[in-house]
Amino acid sequence: xxxxxxxxxxxxxxxxxxxxxxxxxxxxxxxxxxxxxxxxxxxxxxxxxxxxxxxxxxxxxxxxxxxxxxxxxxxxxxxxxxxxxxxxxxxxxxxxxxxxxxxxxxxxxxxxxxxxxxxxxxxxxxxxxxxxxxxxxxxxxxxxxxxxxxxxxxxxxxxxxxxxxxxxxxxxxxxxxxxxxxxxxxxxxxxxxxxxxxxxxxxxxxxxxxxxxxxxxxxxxxxxxxxxxxxxxxx
Length: 235
Hints:
The protein has ten helices and no strands. It is 72% helix and 0% strand.
């Protein structure tokens, strides 16, 4: 009985997806009110809105540090450093070390926008169909697939320079030296530039996905006629 019910659920899900796909596939090119071009442009507009609203926020001071969704926490090998320093009364030093990691990410994010814009321009109607019928973060995952390598290459040197600018290298050298001098601890020497670069990228995509989900699920986030028309297809 359970197997039959499970099979029925699968059949219903497949049928629903097929029907929705058919709705979009059968849209004539020049249907009054909405066209294939409108759908592609609507997806571009949704991503542009997420980039403009969310990436700009991350660029500001505390854009990462005071945002619990994307705040860069310590890598696993440094969590023991943080705890050990707090245990011996050096909590303020540990806090400062965490803050400079997030400051470096905030510095780097400004380079993302032009790379994102180029990727968004490349969305085709076929891309748009699969994105529109996909998960709540389908457009964001599309964007990540086309920008992640390039953004890493852009972010990494900026974060490295930012470490120097905000004194992160000195702060973390002091932190790690203090920790390594504590009896019975094992020495650590993590690659913080690589770690923060990857966490910054993750944070950028997280916030764009937040905006995408809002557009998909909240009518008041569809701030243009085009967004309202296009995303009505997936409601």
